[in-house]
């Protein structure tokens, strides 16, 4: 019997497994196609300040704590996995196109200032000096120097290598349910007909976490996002550019030597995998408005995946009402950002039985009726 079995081999599941194995626990990860869910589509933004939302201050604090961990986490991961993760630390630029866009950016900046966050307002010329490929039609921007990015797929590859090097066992099978015996979670049931018995069960299945047999109610829903990957973008952008284009959001994230991610739609359409003409059109139209040079790039890949949304947009971390059953899911749009802090918190829980204070506000019981 393994000490821990993790359902899900995406970024969160593998990071939890790696960190738990480093704590001396025996760990098995079960996933029929590791990294083919939301992790495959992730743009890799590490942007808690840019993403700061009203009434989401506890999530912001968690995001800032995780961002602070990222440089050391990336260095440890590259050493353990032997693969680069593409950490970029050149900041994030947010720009607007019209008066309404700029009013939204001014409101965001005021909110950031109220919270003591670092963000600088830029005039159009200063924004274009920062990123010369920007159109001359932008009306201004915000520079968030501390919001960075990584290559999400490279991080997953490194986590897979690091986990296996740490002794984690990977079972390529579909999770069919949680085994519950005497009121306690004791393992996972597999599509192949077998089970993986374990002392603790961690559910890290992203948008697929809800409805798993044996699991108590988990308030996670799929939030569809369409995303584009472009080739031939060498030298186009130094860092992440986010924009409001007449009220519509778009982001452009450079990675690798000549690649660019453009995203992303936000759609409540269940597990619809369709990449639509309208979605591609809107993303390309807005990206080209922001950076005209995008029109010359190769459209290398289109993809639709599902963010794991929760009622308050914050993750579900820690124990459940079922002894032995732990959640590490519901990260919505912040899965990459929150990978280090989630992995450390869940590994601490598995090794010591205590959930760190920083993760305590994110247990699933926050949604229980008073």
Provide the descriptors you would attach to this structure in a database record.
370 residues; FAD/NAD(P)-binding domain; D-Amino Acid Oxidase, Chain A, domain 2; 8-stranded mixed beta sheet; 18 strands
What does this structure look like?
The protein is of the alpha/beta class. It has 2 domains: 2-75 and 152-219 and 311-367, FAD/NAD(P)-binding domain (3-Layer(bba) Sandwich), CATH 3.50.50.60; 92-145 and 222-309, D-Amino Acid Oxidase, subunit A, domain 2 (D-Amino Acid Oxidase, Chain A, domain 2), CATH 3.30.9. It is built from 8 helices and 18 strands. The strands form 3 sheets. Strands 1, 2, 8, 9, 10, 11, 17 and 18 form an 8-stranded mixed β-sheet that branches. An 8-stranded mixed β-sheet has the order 5-6-4-13-14-15-12-16, sandwiched between helices. The longest helix has 25 residues, at 57-81.
Mean pLDDT across every amino acid position: 96
Helices, by number, come to: 8
Question: What is the ordering of alpha helices and beta strands?
Answer: EHEHEHEHEHEEHEEEEEEEEHEEEH
Give the amount of beta strand, in percent: 25-35%
Task: List unreliable stretches of 5+ residues.
Answer: none
């Amino acid at each position: 019997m393994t000490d821990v079995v993790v359902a899900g081999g995406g970024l969160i599941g593998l990071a939890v497994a790696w960190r738990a194995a480093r704590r001396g626990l025996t760990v098995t990860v079960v996933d029929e196609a590791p990294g083919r869910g939301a992790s495959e589509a992730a743009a890799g933004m590490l942007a808690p300040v840019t993403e700061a939302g009203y009434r989401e201050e506890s999530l912001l604090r968690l995001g800032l704590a995780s961002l602070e961990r990222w440089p050391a986490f990336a260095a440890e991961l590259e050493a353990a996995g032997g693969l680069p993760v593409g950490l970029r630390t050149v900041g994030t630029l947010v720009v607007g196109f019209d008066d309404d866009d700029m009013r939204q950016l001014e409101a965001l900046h005021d909110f950031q200032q109220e919270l003591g966050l670092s963000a600088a307002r830029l005039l159009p010329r200063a924004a274009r000096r920062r990123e010369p490929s920007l159109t001359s039609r932008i009306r201004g921007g915000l520079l968030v120097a501390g919001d960075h990015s990584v290559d999400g797929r490279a991080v997953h590859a490194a986590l897979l290598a690091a986990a296996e090097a740490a002794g984690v066992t990977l079972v390529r099978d579909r999770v069919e349910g949680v085994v519950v015996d005497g009121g306690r979670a004791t393992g996972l049931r597999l599509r192949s007909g077998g089970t993986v018995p374990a002392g603790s069960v961690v559910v890290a299945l992203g948008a697929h976490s809800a409805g798993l047999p044996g699991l108590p109610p988990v308030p996670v829903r799929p939030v569809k996002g369409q995303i584009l990957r472009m080739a031939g973008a060498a030298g186009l952008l130094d860092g992440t550019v986010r924009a409001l284009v007449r009220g519509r959001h778009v982001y452009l994230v450079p990675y690798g030597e000549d690649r660019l991610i453009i995203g992303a739609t936000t759609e409540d359409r269940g597990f619809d995998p369709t990449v639509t003409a309208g979605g591609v059109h809107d993303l390309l139209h807005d990206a080209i408005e922001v950076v005209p040079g995008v029109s010359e790039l190769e459209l290398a890949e289109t993809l639709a995946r599902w963010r794991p949304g929760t009622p308050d947009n914050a993750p579900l971390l820690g124990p459940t009402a079922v002894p032995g059953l732990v959640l590490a899911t519901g990260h919505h749009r912040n899965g990459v950002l929150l990978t280090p802090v989630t992995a450390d918190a869940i590994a601490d829980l598995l090794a010591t039985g205590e959930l760190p204070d920083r993760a305590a506000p994110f247990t699933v019981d926050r949604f229980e009726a008073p």
